[in-house]
Amino acid sequence: MKLYLLPISTRRTLLYCQKLNAPTSQKQTWGDWVQSKASRTWADWEKKDDGWQKKVVNYGNYAFRRIPYEEWGLKSVPPLSQSRREGELNGSEKVEVVYPKSLLAMDKIPKILHTLATERESLHKKRLIWCFVGMPLTIPVGIIPLIPNLPFFYLCYRAWSHYRALAGGKHIQFLLQKNLLTLTPSPVVDEVYADQKQPLPSTPQPTTTLKAGPDGETFKTFDPSNTKVPNPDGETMLLSQANGKKMTQALDLPQLEVELERAIWQVETAIKESNKEAAGPEEGGSSSAKDAPKPDEAKSHEDKKSQ
User: What is the mean pLDDT of residues 89-114?
Assistant: First the structure.
């Protein structure tokens, strides 16, 4: 399999796992079957023109977009089964880490992977427990006829999601402990970043929770192409939505597009919120006053309405 490390901003990096050549002899687990069945059902509901299925899909996609991209990244890493463990230890299954050397130093890659694998571990454990606690509380909803117990299914999905994120993180920790990763800088990825038009959104303060300390500095990227990005001590976007699509095309990974789109949107939104908080209510008030019509314009508008 291949692990991709793609910086979204100067402080945040997306992890994505591409699974290669899954052995045909490997039996499909019940978890894989349930996931496949749910994906097909969801795709069928998306094709509906209207009805409650379509509404569920719309609300569901809205909620999915807000699940942290870090969680989606860990979920893309397959759990460490016994057969996979043996294959990785004996060398029959190679694990390659693809990254842009223009932005990330090779000696930082293991630390970045370790942080991505462990920083949200306690959160996923807590949320997993709360999902199980909440499931029995949704039983009364199942009494309602003709409507599926959506809260129960949502909690089931979130429990599975947290479990898969934990399993993906454990797999990465295993690979790091056994030194089974092959680090491969990618000129293709570097070229996409080099073609990114500047300036992109930035903020004086990092939006990530790792704002200080060694972990925060681990994720700090190089200055791309010596462009002297604004707010070097804060956070600056490194990819736009347009270049995110170019990245998926350059790597020939169409399934990566939705992951990049989600991650870029989340980080862009965090930067905008950070700038809004830094500006304070005064600027918000002046902006509202600026957008409001002038008295003469308002009077003229009223005269036209009366005519």
Answer: 93
- The tens digit of pLDDT for each residue in 102-158 reads 999 999 999 999 999 999 999 999 999 999 999 999 988 877 776 788 889 899 999
- Measured between alpha carbons, how far is residue 4 from residues 12, 61, 73, 306 in Å? 13, 24, 10, 63
Q: Give the 3-state secondary structure of residue 211.
A: coil
More confident residue, 232 or 101: 101
Domain of 216 in residue numbering reads as: 2-280
Contact by Cβ (8 Å): 156, 61 = no
Nearest to 85, CA basis, from 179, 182, 174: 174
**Separation of alpha carbons 152 and 119, rounded Å:** 28
Does residue 179 form part of some domain? yes
Q: Is residue 289 part of a domain?
A: no
**H-only helix segments in the chain:** 30-46, 52-64, 69-75, 82-90, 109-118, 121-134, 150-177, 187-194, 213-218, 241-251, 256-291, 295-306
Q: Quote the pTM value.
A: 0.81
Q: Count of domains in the chain?
A: 1
Q: Is residue 304 part of a domain?
A: no
- Taken as a whole, the chain contains a residue count of 307
How far the first Cα of the chain sits from its last, in Å, is: 71
pLDDT per position as a tens digit, 164-200? 999 999 999 999 999 999 999 999 999 999 998 888 8
Structure tokens at 190: 């570097």
With contact defined as beta carbons under 8 Å apart, do 12 and 68 qualify?
no
Q: Considering the domain boundaries, does residue 294 fall inside one?
A: no
